[in-house]
Predict the 3D structure of the following.
Amino acid sequence: MTTKNDHPFTQFDDLLNSTVPDEYKDLLKNFKRQGNFYQQFIQCNNEQEDDLSTFWNLPNTLGFESFANQWPEWLQSSFNLNSSSQFSTESLAEQFPHLLLQLTTQAQEHIESIQASLTKLNDLYNELNQSAMQRFKDLNDSASNLSTEQLCAHWLEAGESAYRQISQTNEYIETHKTLIESLSALKNTQHTFSEQASELFGLPSRQSIQELKKNAHKLRMEFAEYKEQTDSKLNALAETIRKLK
Amino acid sequence: MSEKKNHPDDAWQDDFAQLIEQLSHPSRQNHPAVGLTPKELIYTENKLQLFRYKALDIKQKRTPILITYALVNRPYITDLEPDRSLVLRLLEKGYPVYLIDWGYPDNSDCFTSLNDYINGYLYRCVQHVKRDAKRKKIDLLGVCQGGVFSLCYTALHRADIRKLVTLVTPVDFHTKDNTLSLWTNKIHSTLTDNKTGNVPGSLISQLFKALKPYEINREKFREIKPLLAKEEGLETFLRMEKWLNDSPDLAGLAAEEFMTNFYQHNRLHKQTLSIGGAAVELAKIKCPVLNLYSTKDHIVPASATQALSQHIKPTLYQEHALQGGHIGAFISLKTQHHLINVLSQWLA
């Protein structure tokens, strides 16, 4: 890259240390990341590289998260859950011996189910990459003049159409279903442990806190209803008085 | 293939430098404001706020319009900026406009049910609007999930509503082209967060982004030039980004009920829905209904909204197609003009 080309990136680095609002910094990071992505894509395309499939890699797509926020924090902090390939060689259960001391066999089964779903998702994402690349080639072959704009449009069309097909298959839906349900089951197991710990230490149980919250909510709604009835009656009364006058 | 054409580095880097310059300009230290149309808070309850917009100095229509937006995003999208404001367009036509802001639920709200939202919050807002405007009936304009609430409300409280407008509102959740429904209708577990008991807004946001992952996540960051062409372009982009990243958590119980009753069992369309012990029968709606849907809506497909025609008496029902996507239907500069004309003619 030339000195001229470095210029905006130097500016960008300076800006990251400035007082510019954080949301602007995040936006510029996104633009920079996407700019680099498209430039790499165009370059690889121009150099006629055989395998362009990684350019449709969904887990690496900016903003795409495979429900990572729903994962237990201890699992999130240990792994990049958007990149499921790392789960294919080593068992998750083997990586958490300290937790296994506490977790039941049931929890271990949930973790293994999560791992199996991630591996399956990884296969589906690879299939998506290949399908998108094939579609991209077909689109390019049928076009007469390929400008940068057209290449980018073809990249998008190939990606979205391949994704539309795969994301509506039973396999994709069932894999997500299993993943979400395994996570939910794991959360439930954690609940059971925390309830047992609460009982052991004489702390209020989650159940009793939930009951309190439920009753507080009910009271709040009842009060609002009562207030509405009063306002309504006062309003009707004021109207009657106004008419009598 | 021309190599020169396909190497956009220099042009892109120039644009990027300009964008940095614009965003770091001292005049831009504050994010562009949203929801600028003057309004007055007339009722609050818990996190909910009910606003009345300041009338313009023109002849006023008698019946007020209450806008009910979805729980999943913030309602200021209806007043994003002066040129893209459904609220302002209605005020310009002389309608008294009210808006419900549901607020940001926290863990004390996780037991809020659909019954609480429809027969509680929405009911009390409608009563306040009626009293404030001194009218026995009002017009209700529901957007997306807010439209679903408005339909349920009108079916349950017929005496309150003069006319009902549904905008990009799903009725049949099981149409073939409804990807969201396809994804969610087999999930039989809770999506609520352990700490709050609510469904994280970020999860819903991810779900929407996953509908068109390459377009939504990558494509909008590809071209900088159009944003720089006009100052308003960048301002609008920044406002939209703010809105897109501003997703409140969903009250746990209501979210679960919504997913089960609507997405999974399609109860509104199948006429098996019950809210607060009362059957919600759309056929019981006896006021005129205007159904506005978008032709390129990837969140609520047109077919999902058009199913409303099967429930409302033909003499009371009208529908209109709007160009654009789910949000573009009411904020696009092109569509807004058409939308407001259709609306004001029908409401008259």
Q: What stands out?
A: Residues 151 and 282 of chain B are 7 Å apart (CA to CA). The longest helix of chain B spans residues 114-133.
